[in-house]
Amino acid sequence: MKFLRDELDIRKSRKTEHIGKNQYDVKIDLSNLQEINVGKKSLPILVNRKNLESIFSNSYLYDKALAIVIGTKPDFYKQAPLLIEAKRQGLPSFIISTGQHYDNLLGYGIKEFDLYESIICDLQIRGDLIQKSSDLMLKFGYFGRYLKNRMHGKGILPIVHGDTLVAGVATLSWVFGLGQKVGQNESGLRSMSPVSIVDIKANRVPSYDTIEKFVTDQLSVKWFLTREEPFPEQIDTWICSSGTKFFFAPTKLNKEHLIREGYPDEDINVVGNSVVDAIDLKRKTKIRKSIFESYPQLESGDWIRMDIHRRENLTNHRFNAIMGGLVDLIQKTRFKIVLVLLNGTISALNRYNLYTKLLELEKTYPDKFLITNLWKEYGNVVEFLDSGKCWAEITDSGSMQEELLYFRNVCSFTVRFNTDRPETIFDAKGNVLVPPINRYWLPRIVSAVYEKREDLGFDFRKKKKIYGQPGQVSKKIIRILKKEFERKESNFFPWLHQRLHYWQEVEDFDYL
């Protein structure tokens, strides 16, 4: 390749095109070669040296530290309870932030959960999906090697969260860059669909009997794995699992998925989901500004809160089906809806020329339809769902399916063909899958559940809280890690001889 670059330089300097040869003595017509710019230079990694040096300063018991990784909005509130509990139990811990949500809106969770002082590293990740992936892959591994050289003899265990891009790529980077595995909070997420979904006709208006049968079938029929979606989250969680040593699974179903894939039983801990701790924290904390101050309309009546942002739901047919269902809910039913816009929602509305139509709908039905930007403070979401002013959430979020089990009077509608939290449906009976087939499915399922609830098998006031007791999940996770940290030897390496208990590694050597 160096020869090829030299030939290209010669061609540029002479401003002529000629024939060159590569190392295989094959003639190359350089006039057919084109250079592709692969992007601008990455921003530097920022390290708080003072905070880094203080990690082990007050710890005489441990020669290992927990590196809690955050990147996206759900990471902020699901990982924050782990940091709080680690400090409470005296476990050396700090935060690695990808910095990809750097604006005041998406990044506000760092301030809301008081995480800033614990951030030792900001990777300053930017760009689209492939740019963020490549940037994260390189920077996370480089920072790991920096820690290894700077804190010689100290073990660092990153703990990533869920099925985010950060979970997949950061884990891969750590394994490839340092030859060590990580911990995963919220592991084993695998998408499933009810078998009855294959019988739905895409272009047919569903009868009310069809709607009710599909809803009740979700509690009784078999479910099958559907790994295609969400994208890229299902890819991220599979990659993450392959580089994980300490699995913290929300439910037994998640553990069953992992065991089926060949992960050792002894590495998987069923602990619940740390989101319940985050909800508990917010219920005990005064919010900065009430959501009802920002949007006084929400004070009157029963509202449905709606957020749609998944990549697969932003495709042409699905998005138009979902937005068509929203329009029908406003124009043809009694329901009130507050639509929360995320970046993906706004992009799709503009792409399909629907933004103006929704704004006109908001003007026509000011008492029934409200459009808002993303709610910056997670405490506002908790406040609204607790207020009694919201009877349902229409969402394609993964996390909201978990969270809504802990809001007694709120029905959950998940607008997707599958869900990576199927246990919220057939175990907890607190969630309903709404396939985005065409515009008729959403309003008809919402209406059927509103009218018949218990008759359809869903009693949202008695839904099971299957993700653990608030305030207890993070305690379980940190106690498990504390026992591991108290061991003299490190168990972060991926070797089979270590898993089979032949011997433990004391040191590794640089070969990667």
Please tell me about this protein's structure.
This protein is of the alpha/beta class. 39% of the residues lie in helices and 15% in strands. It has 20 helices and 18 strands. It has helices at 2-14, 49-53, 73-88, 108-112, 129-150, 165-178, 208-217, 233-242, 252-260, 275-283, 291-294, 316-332, 343-351, 355-364, 378-386, 399-403, 423-426, 441-452, 473-486, 496-499, and strands spanning 19-21, 27-29, 46-47, 64-70, 93-97, 119-122, 155-161, 182-185, 192-194, 223-225, 244-249, 268-270, 303-307, 336-341, 369-373, 390-395, 411-414, 432-433. The chain has an eight-stranded mixed β-sheet, with helices on both faces. Strands 15-14-13-16-17-18 form a six-stranded parallel β-sheet, with helices on both faces. Residues 228-482 form the UDP-N-acetylglucosamine 2-epimerase domain. Keywords: Isomerase. This is UDP-N-acetylglucosamine 2-epimerase. Its EC number is 5.1.3.14.
Keywords:
six-stranded parallel β-sheet; alpha/beta; Rossmann fold; 15% strand; 18 strands; single chain; 512 residues; globular; eight-stranded mixed β-sheet
